[in-house]
TrEMBL record:
Substrate binds at T41. GO terms for biological process: biotin biosynthetic process. Mg(2+) binds at T16, D54, E115. The gene is bioD. Its main location: cytoplasm. Catalyzes a mechanistically unusual reaction, the ATP-dependent insertion of CO2 between the N7 and N8 nitrogen atoms of 7,8-diaminopelargonic acid (DAPA, also called 7,8-diammoniononanoate) to form a ureido ring. It comes from Ureibacillus terrenus. GO terms for molecular function: ATP binding; dethiobiotin synthase activity; magnesium ion binding. This is ATP-dependent dethiobiotin synthetase BioD. It is an enzyme of class 6 (ligase). Homodimer. NCBIfam families: bioD. CDD domains: DTBS. GO terms for cellular component: cytosol. Its EC number is 6.3.3.3.
Amino acid sequence: MDHFWVVGTGTDVGKTFITTLMMRYLQRKGLKVVPYKPVQTGAVKKGNKTHYSDTTTYLTYSLQPLSPDDINSYSFPTPASPHFAAELEGEWISGAQILNKIDHLTKEYDVVICEGAGGLYVPLQPYTSLTLLDIIQRSKLPAVLVTRSNLGTINHTLLSLEALKSRGIELLGIIVNQYEHSPIEKSNVQTLQRFIPSIPFVIVEGNRTIESFDDETIFERLMKRELLRTSGS
């Protein structure tokens, strides 16, 4: 079974939302699926309780029981780049530990969906040049790229695609998230498709709930390689 990354052109493009949709989609196919967020930052405080929205979303919407130990390796309270958030806590993000965790999970699950943090070049350590892109490359897993449809997306998307291509990372497809049907958004999507006509596109409209996608098959085009196999086939 294939495992893959969900990565974004930047922060707040909806990687967790898309990861959760894909998790539920594949779980409904009968596959044992785990989402894995190697690094998350920005704790959310509600009264006396603190949680992290990314992994909380996984746990809330998964159709299968998830182990908290399997879905995350590093969590830091400050909403900042991983390298700085870790430094503030006196911690060090180990690339080897993340890769070892991915290797372990791929042996335990039919599908592991690794979710990136921020954009591709987000740094993971304060005194080295290690980035998320390095980890993706070393994992040898393909990627789905999540982008927005608003102003600036053409440049951000094409640069991200070039970065993935330069590292030899297979691209499964592009998901344009939070699409609102404005003239500029329509033009942006048409322009991207003109530049990269051979890459599968999925458009996800704004103001949708996770459950509202349960009866749709919008991800079929991205999942057409081997991800649609059931565990019994």
